């Protein structure tokens, strides 16, 4: 019985070694799977990376909400430090940890204006910087903090409405530019459907390759110039 079991196991091992993958194939499969995993991780990070424009808009909206909440807390009779602390905790900022120095300065009687300026991001932090200037004026001169915060909130709302209006007006030109940039590809498809063999001319001859290079360069320059003008107009 024992010899029969050993013989059966030996036969199974021999069959597996004969028909199974070799060591090189196994290693290659492991390397390929590891490489695909790394590529998938890189693609996931790229897709989940926040858009700077959307992040800036989120900061601007949060700054408006902060001014409105701060004005309400000041109108309720709270001190400026308590009102700012409660207002910050009630607003959902994109990066809440950046405002921890502001909360600490408001609670401990520190330089709140400097903390607001330091916490403001480069893009979308205009509201916090204006609030810092308002805070500095209110504490130094002794002006009405509620009135100053209301003016800042009104200014931010007006600027936000203006940006939305400009973005809506620029949506049409941007779409038109993208459609014009895709027209050469549509022309190639139509020429191919007519059995004119445009790719043979573009890739098979020097004049065709020069035309292809010039056309692609002009197409890219047109897209870049349109995007630049739209971004400059929106900013």
TrEMBL record:
Location of this chain's protein in the cell: Cell membrane
PANTHER family reported in the protein's UniProt record: CONSERVED TRANSMEMBRANE PROTEIN-RELATED, INTEGRAL MEMBRANE PROTEIN-RELATED
Type II secretion system protein GspF domain sequence ranges: 67-190
One cellular component (GO) term of this entry: plasma membrane
Protein name, entry field: Tight adherence protein B
Domain of life the protein comes from: Bacteria
Transmembrane segments: 179-196, 202-225
Membrane topology annotation: Multi-pass membrane protein
Primary location group: membrane
Keywords of the record: Cell membrane, Membrane, Transmembrane, Transmembrane helix
Pfam families: T2SSF
